[in-house]
Design goal:
The complex is a heterodimer of chains A (557) and B (198).
Chain A lengths: L9 H4 L4 H9 L4 H29 L10 H35 L8 H24 L30 H29 L12 H33 L12 H35 L6 H15 L14 H29 L8 H24 L1 H7 L3 H31 L5 H27 L16 H31 L37 H6 L10
Helix pairs in contact in A: 3-4, 3-5, 3-15, 4-5, 4-6, 4-8, 5-6, 6-7, 7-8, 7-9, 8-9, 8-10, 8-11, 8-13, 9-10, 10-11, 11-13, 11-14, 13-14, 14-15
Chain B lengths: L1 H5 L13 H26 L10 H4 L4 H23 L2 H31 L9 H32 L8 H28 L2
The chains are: A mainly alpha (557), B mainly alpha (198).
Chain lengths: 557, 198
């Protein structure tokens, strides 16, 4: 590596006082540091959101439980949902995009480093604002503190009359502020990918991770903005006496639902497409084969992005739309399954005949494939509107989307952590703790979310505070709660692994997985300037070309 | 690893990528368009749904003069950017100041209209659904005009100080893109509020 690292004068490598170090982290505009800040802040919120989930599960452990009051229970499920979507999933994915996209396209930073820092701090302040509601949200006496009207704050629940005090204001402002941060990051990602690629990195040679983050960022531009617009309207209603969602003055509660879900459904794909991106990098490397069907993968991603913009009202089948609308949204929703199926086919095609290495990252990827498939199948079930009329707002729906978010997104993310942690820190994560993490989490996940489908089919509605005994829900709910605690234990193993390996893990070297994309050509962790000389690429797997000059990919593409 | 690093193929000769400023501004415009779309949809959805008056037909007057002002400012900023690209700093500054004047005139027109609606017709944002949607949509646009004018004014200050030169013309074009967007949105808002909405 000596040739591509600029030697650092000895004086600069000495340990600085921690205040200096902190100052550097707080004022950084380096995409790698900001990426890590995104990821660490998301992990902190993951802990908080996880504790809220456990409180919900303890409350529902058996019938007539009163572990928390109904008011606290409402706050817990509202804060759990809002936190996990806006302050865990989005920041952690933006963090990986921030860290990896410039490295993979051979750039020295994002297109707008200061905008990048600004976007991160906006998102983070949004999270702080949301949690400040616990302290500052009391407003009127007895009007509650944290937001408690559900993560979608259906009208007119968010109006002044039904949410007195300031709890809904904190919710609205937190989402508005972090939404602006997301838009800034999305603009930055697109500008970086389109304008900063190294010579030779044509669009059809970009790693799939970069392609999929490009599509994700494009979706953020079109999907987060309707939410911001709706939040502005809600603020006008709450502060200026507007009537957008005020049914007393002719306003429409259904319009809020439309605006929310025009954001809400594409949001699911904004979260899952970067996870597809992780899979498309990890599965080929651990199968020792190039990705199967690269152009089709890109086309399927773009196709998902387009179709997912026109499926939102499948969240609203029960509000009484006409049969044409119901049929349209049933059809579009089922149509999303086609490009998604193509992707799963291609990942399996990549593994087929490969020399598969069952490292922890690969285990999580294989878990992702199976669980995401099942999550998709229950999604297809509920895309049929008559079926949805039966199960909407039941625990079946809760089980379905947790299967997507935990079984899909979180598993893919854990895979990404095991795969790129060596690049970010220079140390390997422990495989032994990793296996413990994987198996514990797998068992806990299936115990919780497989079982959760059943009380849903038996008629248990979501968001209920407690339930009567003798409906056949008790044992199932107990099992679900036990599963939740097993998952929490697995997360503790994961966090322990992150911390222990940071200090004691084996040295990673530049390229521990014998991988093929540009980030592995430089030291771990990479120097601040990334590439001493900007690389030039001739194929989709530049490092393969470099390691096998006798048989480069560029000969076949 | 040094062997690996060195064995990257030689740089290709031509490698042109788009300007990051223009790409970013195009993205911002896409995002802003989505926000305006939601407000336009809300305006159209609530047309005629107000329970009490006044209605758009009773109180709105078409602001033709001020619309002409705003739309011609698109032309002047385009010519200003062209002049700068050709290095004619004097023409640039004159056209730039004219753009600011036209934009300012448009805002003055909006202010006059709002004053009339509030004090003569008694229409505020909380009067009825028409008031809520009208002030939000027109106000959102006026907010963007204001933001644009502030940015134009900053450039004008630098221009008057003699600091805007040909090498900045790329950045001036990015700002001009934003201003064109603000004008284009007004065409939509004008059509929806003053033509279709009455």
């Amino acid at each position: 590596m000596s040739s591509s690292v600029i030697p650092v004068p000895v004086g600069q490598t000495e340990a600085r006082p921690w205040v200096d170090e902190l100052h550097q982290w707080l004022t950084t505009v380096d995409h790698k540091r900001l990426g890590i800040l995104y990821i660490v802040s998301a992990l902190l919120f993951l802990m908080i959101g996880g504790v809220e989930a456990l409180i919900i599960r303890v409350q529902l452990m058996h019938s007539h439980n009163n572990f928390v009051s109904p008011e606290v229970f409402n706050r817990m499920f509202t804060m759990h949902g809002t936190t996990m979507i806006f302050f865990v999933a989005m920041p952690v994915l933006f963090g990986f995009a921030n860290y990896l996209v410039p490295l993979m396209i051979g750039a020295r930073d994002m297109a707008f480093p200061r905008l990048n820092a600004f976007s991160f701090w906006l998102s983070f302040l949004g999270g702080l604002l949301l949690y400040f509601s616990f302290l500052g949200g009391s407003g009127l006496y007895g009007a509650g503190n944290a937001p408690d009207v559900g993560w979608w704050s259906y009208a007119p629940l968010g109006a002044r009359a039904f949410s007195p005090g300031h709890s809904s204001d904190y919710w609205t402002l937190a989402l508005l502020v972090s939404g602006f941060g997301s838009i800034g990051t999305a603009i930055n990602i697109i500008a970086t990918i389109l304008c900063l690629r190294c010579p030779g990195m044509k669009l059809n040679r970009m790693p799939l991770l970069v392609w999929m983050n490009l599509v994700m960022a494009g979706m953020v531009l079109l999907a987060i903005t309707p939410l911001s617009a709706a939040q502005i309207m809600l603020l006008i209603d709450r502060y200026l006496g507007g009537h957008f969602f005020d049914t007393q003055a002719g306003g429409s509660a259904v319009l809020w639902m439309h605006f929310f879900w025009i954001f809400g459904h594409p949001e699911v794909y904004i979260l899952i497409i970067p996870c597809f991106a992780f899979m498309s990098e990890i599965i080929p490397v651990f199968s020792r084969k190039p990705i199967f069907g690269y152009p089709v993968m890109v086309a399927a991603t773009v196709c998902i992005a387009f179709v997912s913009m026109s499926v939102w009202a499948h969240h609203m089948f029960t509000i009484g739309m006409n049969s044409y609308a119901n049929s349209f949204f049933t059809l579009t929703t089922m149509a999303v399954g086609v490009p998604t199926g193509i992707k799963i086919f291609n990942w399996i095609g990549t593994m087929w005949g490969g020399r598969i290495q069952f490292k922890t990252a690969m285990l999580f990827s294989i878990g992702f494939l199976f669980q995401f498939l099942i999550a998709g199948l229950t999604g297809i079930m509920m895309a049929a509107s008559p079926f949805d009329w039966q199960l909407s707002l039941s625990y079946f729906v809760v089980a379905h989307f947790h299967y997507v978010i935990v079984g899909g997104i979180l598993f893919a993310l854990f895979g990404a952590f095991y795969y790129w942690y060596p690049k970010m820190t220079g140390r390997m994560l422990s495989e032994r703790l990793g296996k413990w993490h994987f198996w514990l989490f797998l068992i806990g996940f299936h115990l919780t979310f497989d079982v959760m489908h059943i009380p849903g089919i038996l008629g248990m509605p979501r968001r209920i505070y407690t339930y009567e005994p003798g409906r056949g829900w008790d044992t199932l709910n107990l099992l679900i709660t036990i599963g939740a605690f097993i998952q929490a234990l697995a997360i503790l193993v994961f966090v322990a692994n992150l911390i222990i390996s940071y200090f004691k893990g084996a040295r990673a070297g530049n390229d521990p997985w014998d991988a093929w994309t540009l980030e592995w050509s430089i030291s771990s962790p990479p120097p601040a300037y990334n590439f001493a000389t900007v690389p030039t690429v001739a194929s989709r797997r530049p490092l393969w070309d470099a390691k096998h000059p006798e048989d480069p990919d560029s000969r076949y593409e | 690893m040094s062997a690996v690093t060195n064995s990257f193929p030689n740089p290709t000769a031509a490698w042109d990528l788009p300007s990051r400023g223009k790409v970013a501004m195009a993205c911002l415009i896409i995002a802003e368009s989505a926000i305006f779309t939601i407000f336009v949809v809300a305006y159209l959805f609530y047309l005629g749904k107000s329970i009490t008056g006044p209605t758009p037909a009773e109180v709105l007057e078409t602001p033709i003069f001020y619309t002409i002002c705003l739309l011609s400012s698109s032309l002047t900023i385009h010519l200003a950017a062209k002049s700068l690209a050709r290095g004619i700093a004097f023409a640039f500054l004159g056209l730039w100041l004219l753009t600011i004047a036209l934009g300012g005139l448009f805002l003055y027109g909006t202010a006059l209209e709002w004053h009339r609606l509030i004090y003569n017709n008694g229409l505020t944002i909380s009067t009825n659904l028409f008031g809520t949607t009208y002030y939000s949509l027109v106000g959102l646009h006026a907010f963007h005009v204001t933001a644009g004018l502030i940015m134009l004014a900053i450039v004008a200050v630098f221009g008057l100080a003699g600091r805007v030169e040909m090498k900045q013309s790329g950045r001036i074009e990015v700002l001009a893109m934003y201003w064109h967007f603000v004008d284009a949105v007004w065409v939509v808002v004008f059509t929806v509020v003053y033509v279709l909405g009455r």
